[in-house]
Structure formats: C-alpha cells, structure tokens
Design brief:
Number of helices: 15
Order of helices and strands: EHHHEHHEHHEHHEEHHHEEEHEHEEEH
Number of strands: 13
Bound molecules: beta-D-fucopyranose
Largest sheet: 8 strands, parallel, barrel
Distance between the termini: 12 Å
Structural class: alpha/beta
Length: about 450
Amino acid sequence: MQPGLGLRFPESFIWGAATSAYQIEGASNVDGRGPSVWDTFSKTPGKVRNGHHGDEAANHYHLWASDLDLIKELGMKSYRFSISWSRVLPTGSGPVNHKGLDFYKRLIDGLHQRGISPMVTLYHWDTPQALHDLGGWENRDTALKFADYAALVARSLGDTVPTWLTLNEPKTVVQNGYLHGSHAPGHRDQAAAYVVAHHQLLAHGLAVQAMRPHLPAEAGIGASLNLHPCYPADGSAEAAAQTYLYDGYENRLYLDPIFKAEYPADVLADIARFSPMETYIRPGDLKTIGEPVDLLAVQYYTPIYVTGTGTTEVRHPISEAFWQQIFPQGLFDILLRVKQDYGDIPLTITENGLPTPDSLGTDGTVSDPGRVEFLRDHFAAAHKAIEAGVNLKSYHVWSLMDNFEWQEGYEERWGLIYVDYPTQRRIPKQSARWFSDVIRSGAI
Ligand code: FCB
C-alpha cells in the first residue's frame, strides 16, 4: 500500500463514483425500454471489440439494491448515474414508460435511504434510436425533444435530486460518434459533426431552461465536459498557435458558449472550412446555450501535446486505454484554467480513472495497485487545486464498477469494484478498499 501523503481535504468535500445507464444496466429489452443508438451500433458486426453489447452489461437494472449497499459500505456520499432516455421515453418523445421512470425512482429512493446523494446525468450518449432515425443530433428537433424529456424528468424526480447534469461529454459524441465513427452512431462526416456540436449545446441550454421551473431553488444544474489540457510540444511560435487552436476544439468550443454565450471566433472560422455549422446557429441560440448554470462537471483523463504542424505527441506513460497518458498535473492545470478563464464556478469532478488488467485472484481478491497509485496522484492534484483557490466540491471516480467500455466492450476494466460477468458477482478491488479509507479519513 502507498504511504500517506499527509494531505487533508476540507470537511465538506464529497467523494463518490460514477456510472452510466448503457454501460451497467443491461435489461435492454425489459419493462418497455426502447432501443438506443448504442444497441444498434454494438450489434453491428465489427464495431465493438469481441462483438460485445450492453444487453446484460452488469445487470444493474436488477442488482441495483445490492449495488447501492456496496456504495454505502464503501462510505461514498455521492453517486453519479445516468437515466436512459429510451427507458423513460421509448421513442424519445411521446408517451411515458412508467416502468422505466419507476426504476429511477426506486434507485433515487434507495440512495436517500442509504445516505447517498444522487447526481443524475440525463444523456450519456444513448440517443433513442427512433430519434436518430429522424436525423438525431443533426436535426435541431432533437434538441427540443431533449428539453421536453428533461422537463418530464424534472417534474417527476426534481425534488429528490440535488444535482442535475444535462449532457455527458458532448465533444465525444462529436469526435467519436461523428468524426471518427468509433462510437455510435458511427458516422464519419466532418460537416455533420459540428452541426451535432451546436445542436447538443442547444439541447443543454434548452434543458436548463425547461428544468428550472420544476426544481427546488437549491437544486444545481450543469453539464459534464471532458476537458483536455493542451500543451505545446516545443517552444516554437507554430506550436503555440496550433496548441491554441487545438485547445479551441477540445475546450473552448464547449466552455465559451456555456459560460460566455459565444462561440470562439477562431474555432468557428476554422470549422467554416468544412462544416456549415454556422448556418445552423439561429438568433437567440447562444443566449439559450449560455443560460446560467450552477456548476461545471469536469471529466479529466489525459493531456494533449501539440506540435507546430498540429499533430500530437505522447509524453507520458500510456494506460491500457490507447488514448490516455497518465499525467496528474493535467488535472490541476485544467481546474486552474477554468477558474482563470471562466470564473469561480463551483466545480465537481464527475469522472477520472483508468483501466487496469484486473483479475480475480485464487484468494478471491482483486489487486489493482496501478489504480491506487493513479487515484492517489490525481487526488493530490485536486488537493493542490483546492489549495490554490479552486472551488472544487466533490470528486467522482470513473467508475463504480467494471462495465461496458463502449468500443472496447468488456475488455477494459475501469471499476473500483470487479464484476465477474458470468456470475455477476461484485468484488471490491484493492483500490475500492483504499478509496474507502480515504473517504473515512478525509485524507491521502
Ligand atoms: C468517458 C465516458 C465514460 C467512460 C470513460 C472511460 O469518456 O464518459 O462513459 O467510458 O470515458
């Protein structure tokens, strides 16, 4: 076990873990759930490693009560999960599926009974297939439908959830879903990708407006953004310029509209070379997207190093995820940067973690020293940010348990809790025990 660093977190600091619906729930065909783009994508041959899909996943839909017991046992005070849009509205709009909504009511009640605070994401990439068939995020109407769904959820569950997150990582939908095609819906279409960016951001703003009237005054709403600190790979003016633009695509394109009600002009001009995005921006849209929010949910995984020609370089050890360089200082840098450029917004970390090659030992335990080290170093970076005056309130590890890691299927294990998929048995890993000690002592 790692030696203690002697760093104490504020009394009010809240620790927890995160999951998302498609990645853990399973029960894809149960109680009236409609299909989402991830059902379709994962069942398209060649899209997901080993042909894995989320039909059963970690079967959390049925095992939720014992899963919540585990969260409590580990001492976590916050749990971030997402609602499956097509479980509540099987075709994305129209009649409510009460059995779907009731699942989330049970989950939220169960959390309160155990003294755990729910943090709810409304959209974690699982667009209802029926809406996708009508154009999905390329169609402005999807943003309006999302706001209707958000209002419905706020009306039904609003008084039981203190923190709401509209969208999870809209950038990943743009880049992986519409540029690289590695995520659902698997498109490779630069022109469409940035139209999708605008419509998602619009959906965020419309949802904030639609939810407010149904929420108690003290409830918080925000979005979850995966921010990437971008650094020049060398000291040249070219690298500095390319890094600035790269940062525009990774961070400013989402932060500026939400917090300044404007798109970054340099990025918009660059996008205009290959996408008609700008022609989709209607008068008033930016004011809607800039609708005041109460917090920003930051997800941090990796830095990016940019060369003078706009390519990227690797500077740090890579985790099992090919795209992840392990660099805890990046978390500190990005938190400070948000404060400097966007003001003293209350922040929560809603995702941070790594995959490790975990297996069940003959003694029935799972040791993952790499995760302990990773978390300790990132917690230390968060601590340093708090010391530097960042208004950081809470920290959610990705992920509570092993789950369906998108195009990697079940190959990558990101959980604090090991899932033995054949039996669906849960085994808290060494890192879960370590995290539990951190929570109980309030220090690393
Ligand atoms: C994030 C996603 C989350 C998980 C982690 C590893 O981009 O929001 O669902 O896949 O990466």
